[in-house]
Design brief:
single chain; 367 residues; alpha/beta; TIM Barrel; 8-stranded parallel β-sheet; two-stranded antiparallel ribbon; 12 strands; 46% helix; globular
Length: 367
Amino acid sequence: MRGVLRTSLVVLSLVLSGASEAAEPRTPESFAARAPDEARVERVLRSLSLREKVGQLLLAYPQVGKENPVEVGGVLFVGGTLRKIDAAKERIRSARERARIPPFFAVDIEGGNFNRLKQHPSLKALPLAREMAAMEDAEVESWGMRVGRAMREVGLNMNLAPVFDVSPQGHMFRNGRAFSGDAAVVKQKATAFARGLAKAGVVSIGKHFPGYGDLDTDSDHEHAIADWDEGRVRLEAAAFRAADRYLGGVMMSNIVYTKLGPGPAILEPALVAMAHESGWISVTDDVAIRALAEQIGSEREEVVRRAFLAGNDLILTTEPPDWSGGLDYFGILTKLAESEPKLAEQLDASVRRVLRLKDRMGLLDGL
């Protein structure tokens, strides 16, 4: 009887363990290898209203009100939103319950001081990218896994990192965010970090596509110009393509690549199309910064319009999309999509790319 009881307990333990593993979100290896279920993606796409489609294009600071529906495609955690980890967990849990389509929960954790989860015990010593460049690939991958596991513990599933800029000098070199000025090193180490994130079940968005290079200007605050021909642009972008399997998308830079258009990369169709060549989603850098509107000599609403017209799939903003003191993101994009049939088709194309990534992550399972 005692032997039977012991056997039963072992079996029960295995069953419970299996159930626990089944309840866990999909592993990164399945993300890296899994093709989207196109039938499910199309079914979900057809079920969305125009407002719901527009919402899938927004990666935004948490919406106002704890009882309101979460309509955005992704929730962005910046500033002090992760200072209290338990509160962040509850916020994510609540947002997940109030969203019809499961959102991305995104943060940028690169290394060193560029770390939104400094409060997490396992990430207090997270090295800068430049410091990780001196490590073996396996150690860099281990740091990526550690970051991913800490993120998943909180409920986050998307990291706006790592940095793939090949920067031998200039802004990204000085602040240590670039792994190296050697393209081969960047490809190895940034890919290892992204692979580690993937193994922990977190999707990477590489930045700043197609590359910051050795520019000495901070494009968040100044007019940054790269007078590179298309060959040089593609050479810089090759660092991202080395990690193709482990990237869900890329964040477009705010740099003006003069040979490919007069505006910042996030507003240039040719550069966004270049990101789409690898099947990635394209994510803007923050459209809420005033420097962008100043660069194009227009109002902030025009930045949002042009970001959509350029073909971006996720429009990132660090202000709540329903904040009374901010822009009416839903209104701006809905009006655009209603203005011409081809823009409605463009909206569908972007939402389809977003849904494909979500399906690869297992977020659409059961819908």
